[in-house]
Specification:
Shape: globular
Helix content: 25-40%
Distance between the termini: 43 Å
Oligomer: single chain
Order of helices and strands: EHEHEHEHEHEHEHHHEHHEEEEEEHEHE
CATH topology of the largest domain: Dihydrodipicolinate Reductase, domain 2
Low-confidence stretches: 361-365
Length: 417
């Protein structure tokens, strides 16, 4: 088979990771174009291929005016831009690997699905957790029938306090109006997993959640607007932005171009003027820091999801008529994920072995899912397991967006029309 040609729209952290993985897979993929307004980001993509083989563009208007330059376009731009970029790409003739969420409203997600089907195009969302050793193994166990008929699922996601502050208090996803609600922006992975593992569509959902900690009412006495202005409790504050210079330096590289090679003075200048230097109690955020949802699936399975800023990792319980499955991706300090199966008849408990993700290229907390996603990409779009036209993963988006509607209405159940 000829290489699958891919173009990258948005050459930030996610776009660069996917590009590096594609380039590492030999002649299976050919990167043909890179689109980003920042020269250093485009250059990072260009370095992955022989000179002169990747066309670069500074804006989407020039890129789409050039016509179809690849088989698949990877869209790794900000949430609010996904709909316009995806619509233009579909009309240009591209199949899409689209960063989640597909768009900032459920109506636009549905519209993208309809448009893709009408044009015979395919949209795969970047639900990388499906391709981790942990969740791929969970799916195999369910498909084997060892648990019998699935009755209930219970999932949790601990965002981790500093991650919450970086992305959902100071960062790009801090305000729902300019991105998407927390349950969509962070937990669309988890909502997708509930639907994927249930092998069903959501039928009715109810949700509760609030922003309880990251606001001015909890600011320490004398805390300035920016950590860099001198905070009296900096030494005790786990959110002090000076941590970007020490144990959280890798996070700085996600938002500051050239951070890996920058000196301390340059990094401090960035923190003094960027959102990531602000006190977490004096930001303009509205993303919730804890939320729960309960859902009834069309096939009768019931499921719950708990999201909290004040935990780390994901856990999962699945209970069936023949057995239960329990496990998760624990704290980073606790080692590798584990998965256990209990047989109801015998009472025997079995540790289910998981393939290792050690050394796999990609974002560490995705547990090998980044690599797994790109490794499957040519199969999605060109191989014998090619997807049907439309937006894969729409069920999970419906669940997350309807959960947010329910939360805003005080937990009123929301059904699928």
């Amino acid at each position: 088979m000829k290489p699958l040609q891919i173009a990258i729209l948005g050459c930030g952290a996610r776009g660069r990771i996917y590009s590096r993985i594609a380039a590492s897979l030999g002649d299976r993929y050919q990167i043909t174009a890179a689109v980003d307004p920042i020269a250093a980001r485009r250059a990072a993509i260009v370095e992955l291929a022989p000179p002169g083989t990747i066309r670069t563009f500074t804006n989407t208007e020039e890129f789409f005016a050039a016509g179809k330059l690849a088989d698949v376009l990877i869209i790794a731009t900000q949430d609010a831009d996904h709909y316009s970029h995806a619509t233009s790409a579909l009309h240009t003739g591209y199949d899409l690997l689209l960063e989640k969420p597909a768009s900032e409203t459920l109506q636009r997600c549905e519209a993208l699905d309809t448009l893709a089907r009408s044009l015979g195009r395919k949209i795969a969302l970047c639900f990388v957790l499906r391709y981790t050793p942990f969740y791929a193994t969970v799916k195999k166990v369910l498909d084997s029938g060892r648990l019998g008929r699935i009755i209930t699922l219970r999932a949790s996601e601990g965002v981790e306090p500093f991650h919450q502050s970086h992305s959902f208090v100071r960062g790009h996803w801090s305000k729902s109006a300019s991105s998407t609600p927390m349950i969509v922006a962070k937990c669309s992975h988890d909502a997708d997993l509930l639907c994927w593992l249930s092998d069903s569509q959501p039928q009715s959902v109810s949700s509760f959640g609030r922003l309880d900690w990251f606001h001015a009412g909890n600011a320490p006495a004398g805390a300035p607007l920016h950590c860099t202005d001198g905070c009296p409790v900096a030494a005790e504050c786990m959110f002090d932005s000076h941590r970007y210079l020490t144990d959280r330096r890798s996070w700085l590289g996600l938002v500051m171009d050239g951070a890996d090679d920058a000196d301390e003075a340059s990094c401090l200048d960035f923190l003094k003027t960027s959102p990531w230097g602000r006190c977490v109690y004096h930001c303009d955020n509205d993303a919730v820091d804890h939320q729960i949802l309960g859902v009834e699936m069309a096939n009768g399975i019931t499921a719950t999801l708990t999201m909290t800023a004040f935990d780390e990792g994901r856990t999962l319980e699945i209970h069936g008529t023949h057995g239960s499955l329990r496990g998760g991706v624990p704290f980073r300090e606790a080692g590798a994920p584990e998965l256990w199966l209990r047989d109801h008849r015998s009472g025997a408990v079995e540790n289910i072995p998981l393939p290792s993700a050690e050394g796999v290229e990609g974002y560490a907390s995705h547990g090998g899912g980044d690599f797994g996603l790109i490794d499957a990409l040519d199969g999605f779009f060109a191989g014998p397991s090619a997807m049907e036209p439309g937006l894969d993963g729409l069920a999970g988006h419906r669940l997350a967006f309807l959960a947010e509607e329910s939360r805003i209405q005080g937990g009123v159940p929301r059904g699928i029309a």
